[in-house]
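Continuing the batch. This is chain 6 of the set; chains 1 through 5 are on the previous pages. Same settings as before, nothing changed between runs. Recording input and output for traceability.
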Amino acid sequence: MVFVIDTNKQSQPMVHPAEARKLLRDGKAAVFRRVPFTIILKEERPPAEKSYRIKIDYGSKHTGLALLDGNKAVWLGQIEHRTNIKSLLDKRRGYRRRRRSANLRHRKPRFDNRTRPRGWLPPSLESRVGNIETWVRRLCTLAPVGVISYENVKFDTQLVQDDTIDGVQYQQGTLQGYEVREYLLERRGRRCAYCGKEHVPLEIEHIVPRSRGGSSRISNLTLACHECNQAKGAMTAEEFGHPEIQKQAKKPLRDAAIVTATRWRVYDMLVGTGLPVECGTGGRTKYNRTRLGLPKEHYYDACCVGESTPDMLAIKTNEVLVITAKGRGSHCRTNVNASGFPRGYRARQKLFFGFSTGDYCKADIGSGKKAGTYVGRVLCRKTGSFDINTMQGRVQGLNHKWFTVLQRADGYEYHTEKRGATSSPCLKAGASVVQ
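Output for chain 6:
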């Protein structure tokens, strides 16, 4: 289905691709946006009835989106959030420290009582909220949306770790009456977890190393002698030959913590759109997905959010728009090597020959060893020799004269995927999925 807006940029009901092609061929419409594909009519039409519903399945790494018109799913999407923001900020902090020390600049320490505004979120979490807000507001401008359904899930992280927890145990925690080292000594029998040595100095060791994404949770800690700790290095316990130790490291709760910390911020943002917001639980989403016989995918979960999920769901699209958050560039104007030392300076301008890095472009090359048509995000250089990132990989060293802008950079990268095949409908529940 194709998004449609009239000449005043007011949203209209979506149309079948065949009807969109006819409007374009007859000169009654023009292409307004390539991704998601939108046409703009050359006439004014009366306001459309706001019969569409946006459904959101929020996740820490992926967020599913679905646009429903009654019992028809007319558009499916999936946002892939940025997960490298903290590491980029840490890297920038390191560059700044090295630069200040290299220039021997004395800088008086800042005051220690800096405060953050009420409701402050770390940039890595704020990015997720911003991605959802961008696409909700974008869909509201492209389609006559009247309601939003949102899966507002709270994770009980203590119950996730221990399904027998109850009552006052929530207040006591794992280390009630212990310090970390004493707890580990008693739990491990005062011996090395890897070689079994006793009566030797023992060191606290991470089962999954910090460099591999492991946390300092008590379940990820064990005791090891100095020799085993050094020999293990950056390997996990399983890679070091001890899968039985690896099993003791419980699954990280990072993703659950991210969703729990931001779920109400997302809800407040949705309420700020002025549309009614329906909240659903994870249990209801799973029940609806099972009832409709849908596989576990984020965009299918989005279709099943809330009590408003229809008994019969007709999926009117075979493609899913995958939206990858990339950001809008970097403030850094110096290229550095692997050690963080400068090795060159970037240009102080953003536009090169009418193009900007991140623009969605098409390169038509008629001859030569790189002859062909390439579509993707462009990487610009001052010399006029551009690169283009396509689904098949990066193509380097293409002259800017071959490029045509399809859509200006908006901080996202796009590609389409075929949606997952659905299983047999659950006839016992009286529900079905119409392909």
